[in-house]
């Protein structure tokens, strides 16, 4: 459709005549002479929200309707578009327009197809990984019944891999030709996302000759976007980047070609790469809950409630040293109440500022060397590093409600040893609106890097160093050696990670998701009388 072309026709929709207009901005239809009792009715769908157009077959029942009786032949086309049903929850709606002129009908279909094709950020070919054992084991059914029909409607071709074991997606991604796909979709929970993300980041670094074991190596951002169809137990990554864990909504974000950059943090132990995470890295409470819940997988998502209760009663605390590099490049802070929203300005400015500071100092470590490390020794019930809010159905605001998706920072939350009662008060604040950082035993910092060493390792290092000095090499020389520490486990995006010492660094906007972050409430503020049929009002 050329820039000049603008279609404007009188077409029938639900047996009423409408003036329908199509231009680069989108599609609108309004009543030429609005019935006074109803008030003016007009509807508008922006181009970016049109999903598909199809020629519509007219069945006998429809053709016998009174309005059509006089006409010799009828033609129709159906436009599919995204509609906001309630906050963050999207649905695919359709409107079928009728006309008598076949040529006019074809002209409309052609123009709409061209308009949809002009949306270059939309994927055409997707590689889909389904974990059949995620959550309530409904991944395959959810994909086949709710997602695949939408992909097919949007003319997206797919290659589907149903995983057969843990790390299947990760291993597979190390050999597939990524150039064949416009995106990767994972159907499952946070653990499944983690598998896909490790496969994609690992592959990108390998192709670029970057050694992931080198904690100082600058990582290469991944070009391929990842889509998440939530079918897991917590679905935190989906919830915190879309605002809801709903498979249809996520499928529509993928179809419409949304793009949300995301920070990824790397976890190393000395010169050994351990894992990446995008949501929570938690030691103490959340690590122990995860470890205990893994033995209860058969229970489904209720395993987290049982393990949570048990871990709460055990009230273990862990001694160690946390050191961190505060983030100085961002204007945000963990308690400013400025939560991350679609097209977040804090994220944009933070990325720009970080790049400038790193350029000024020649490399990112030069910039980091200018800043002062903070050291805190203590007894902790929980050490949580939140790369994003970590909102999920259990905790709708998340563990750090003002954390940002793409600002190059994580929020480091230190929960010091306190009474069971106080810890319960703290946990309850994960589920309500109250400030969860307003406790004397909780500290929170916005950081770029942090290190943790458990007390046991520090003690044993002292002994080993002494022994080494006198007797030679010991196993503490091996970065992955854990000996028999009675420390906690790390909960790393829902995957367990055992390491008594780690070094963490946030990598600003390393990956991209088919998402757009949390849409502000204004998107849904429509008068209730018009909500039932109106998709998007504003241009009329
Ligand atoms: C008495 C009130 C207790 C309130 C507890 C509130 C729990 C808030 C949970 C927030 C967790 C957010 C971090 C996300 C972790 C997920 O990655 C992980 C794995 O998810 P999945 O692969 O989909 O299974 N989930 C957990 O670790 C569950 C933690 C639940 C703790 C009770
Ligand atoms: N076919 C499979 N069999 C067993 N484990 C698998 C399979 N496919 C993926 N996994 C692993 O299952 C783990 C949990 O998956 P996830 O989708 O997060 O489910 P849940 O949300 O229920 O924890 C992930 O670590 C993933 O690697
Ligand atoms: Ca962040």
From TrEMBL:
Does the entry feature the keyword Kinase, yes or no? Answer: yes
Q: Which GO terms describe its biological process?
A: ceramide metabolic process
What InterPro entries is this protein classified in?
ATP-NAD_kinase_N, CERK_C, CERK_PH, Diacylglycerol_kinase_cat_dom, Lipid_Phosphate_FormReg, NAD/diacylglycerol_kinase_sf, PH_domain
- The answer to keyword Kinase applying to this record is yes
Domain DAGKc, by residue range, is 121-271
Q: Which UniProt keywords apply?
A: Kinase, Transferase
Q: Which residues form the PH domain?
A: 1-117
Question: PROSITE patterns, from UniProt?
Answer: DAGK, PH_DOMAIN
GO MF annotation list = ceramide kinase activity
Gene that codes for this? CERK
Q: Name one Pfam family in it.
A: PH_CERK
* Protein name as annotated: Ceramide kinase isoform X1
GO cellular component terms given for this protein: membrane
């Amino acid at each position: 459709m050329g820039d000049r072309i603008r279609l404007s026709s009188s077409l029938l929709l639900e047996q009423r005549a409408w003036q329908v207009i199509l231009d680069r901005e989108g599609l609108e239809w309004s009543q030429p002479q609005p019935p006074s009792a109803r008030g003016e009715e007009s509807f508008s769908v922006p181009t970016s929200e049109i999903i598909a157009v199809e020629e519509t077959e007219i069945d006998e029942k429809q053709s016998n309707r009174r309005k059509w009786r006089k006409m010799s032949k009828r033609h129709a086309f159906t436009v599919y578009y995204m509609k906001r049903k309630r906050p963050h929850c999207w649905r695919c709606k359709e409107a079928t327009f009728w006309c008598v002129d076949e040529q006019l009908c074809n002209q409309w279909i052609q123009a709409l197809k061209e308009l949809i094709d002009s949306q270059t950020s939309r994927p055409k070919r997707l590689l889909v990984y389904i974990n059949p054992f995620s959550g309530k084991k409904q991944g395959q059914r959810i994909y086949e019944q709710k997602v695949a029909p939408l992909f097919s409607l949007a003319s997206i071709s797919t290659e589907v891999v149903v995983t057969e074991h843990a790390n299947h997606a990760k291993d597979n991604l190390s050999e597939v030709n990524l150039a064949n796909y416009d995106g990767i979709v994972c159907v499952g929970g946070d653990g499944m996302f983690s598998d896909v993300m490790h496969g994609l980041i690992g592959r990108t670094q390998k192709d670029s000759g970057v050694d992931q074991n080198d904690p100082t190596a600058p990582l290469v951002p991944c070009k391929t976007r990842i889509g998440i169809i939530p079918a897991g137990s917590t679905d935190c990554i989906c919830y915190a980047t879309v605002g809801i864990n709903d498979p249809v909504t996520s499928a529509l974000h993928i179809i419409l070609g949304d793009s949300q950059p995301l920070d990824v943090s790397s976890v190393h132990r000395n010169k050994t790469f351990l894992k990446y995470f995008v949501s929570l890295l938690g030691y103490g409470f959340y690590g122990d809950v995860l470890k205990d819940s893994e033995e209860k997988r058969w229970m489904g998502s209720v395993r987290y409630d049982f393990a949570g209760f048990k871990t709460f009663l055990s009230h273990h605390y862990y001694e160690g040293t946390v050191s961190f590099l505060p983030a100085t490049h961002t204007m945000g802070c963990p308690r400013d109440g400025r939560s991350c929203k679609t097209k977040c300005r804090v994220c944009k400015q933070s990325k720009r500022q970080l790049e400038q500071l790193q350029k000024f100092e020649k490399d990112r470590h030069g910039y980091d060397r200018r800043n002062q490390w903070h050291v805190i020794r203590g007894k902790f019930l929980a050490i949580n590093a939140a790369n994003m809010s970590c909102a999920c159905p259990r905790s709708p605001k998340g563990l750090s409600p003002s954390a940002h998706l793409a600002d190059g920072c994580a929020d480091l939350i230190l929960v010091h040893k306190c009474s069971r009662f106080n810890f319960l008060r703290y946990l309850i604040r994960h589920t309500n609106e109250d400030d969860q950082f307003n406790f004397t035993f909780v500290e929170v910092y916005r950081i770029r890097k942090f290190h943790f060493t458990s007390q046991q390792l520090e003690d044993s290092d002292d002994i080993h160093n002494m022994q080494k000095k006198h007797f030679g090499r010991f196993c503490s020389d091996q970065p992955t050696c854990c000996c028999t520490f009675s420390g906690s486990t790390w909960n790393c995006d829902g995957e367990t990670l055992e390491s008594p010492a780690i070094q963490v660094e946030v990598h600003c906007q390393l990956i991209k998701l088919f998402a757009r972050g949390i849409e502000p409430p204004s998107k849904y503020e429509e008068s209730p009388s018009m909500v039932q049929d109106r998709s998007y009002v504003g241009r009329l």
